[in-house]
Amino acid sequence: MTSQKALSTTESGRKVKLTQDEQVYAHIFDAILEQRLAPGTKLNEESLGEIFGVSRTIIRRALSRLGHEQVVVLRPNRGAVVASPTTEEAKQIVYARRIVEKAVTELVIEHSTPEQLRLLRKQVQEEQQCFVQGDKGAGIRLSGEFHLKMAEMANNPPLLSFQRSLVSQCSLIIAQFELSNQSHCSYDEHFELIDAIERKDKDKAVSLMMHHLDHIEDKLNLDEEPASDNLREVFSNVLGNKS
């Protein structure tokens, strides 16, 4: 396995060695955040084992964790696939994200330190640089990681667990339902949010976060009726003409 994901950086900047299944999990999680793994992609255990140079047991552990976070669907006897949320599921996920983000923002106001905010601002600068340089995938990943870092700063492990699942699920939703030719300027709103947090302005920070989520949702097309696999439903007009 490559060493790129062998270490993880904690909030304090300390490097921690990851286990093999944690490394595989991190690679797949990042691929979902960067929208390099399309919804519905089959995750073949044998192929992944060859790619990462690990046993299928290690792959299963990583996929099981991703399945618990609902970004991978584990199908008995048919293998795992990247989740493909329906429009109704997408709406529910976006709604849940709003509730979690509001709580996270309020807790960050209470618990964040100047050093944490400095590191968060540095991360947003990296996000901005990625978009400026045309590296959209890395920019999208860093945009998602901004919200994960916020959840870490909230100092509430259950919320962080919810947020990891919701952020990655939202990335899948964006990959499926985002309207074409939409611009990505999340870093501007991230900078504004950090400014409000530094001022301890809870009302402004929550308002900015909700406004930020409005922009994300506005880019999604969740109103169209999904295509049907029911032949009689698809060709109802033909059947109607025969009656």
UniProtKB/TrEMBL annotation:
The keyword Aminoacyl-tRNA synthetase does not apply. Keywords: DNA-binding, Transcription, Transcription regulation. It comes from the Bacteria. Residues 18-85 form the HTH gntR-type domain. InterPro entries: GntR_C, TF_FadR/GntR_C, Tscrpt_reg_HTH_GntR, WH-like_DNA-bd_sf, WH_DNA-bd_sf. GO terms for molecular function: DNA binding; DNA-binding transcription factor activity. Pfam families: FCD, GntR. The keyword Transcription regulation applies. CDD domains: WHTH_GntR. This is GntR family transcriptional regulator. It comes from Motiliproteus coralliicola.
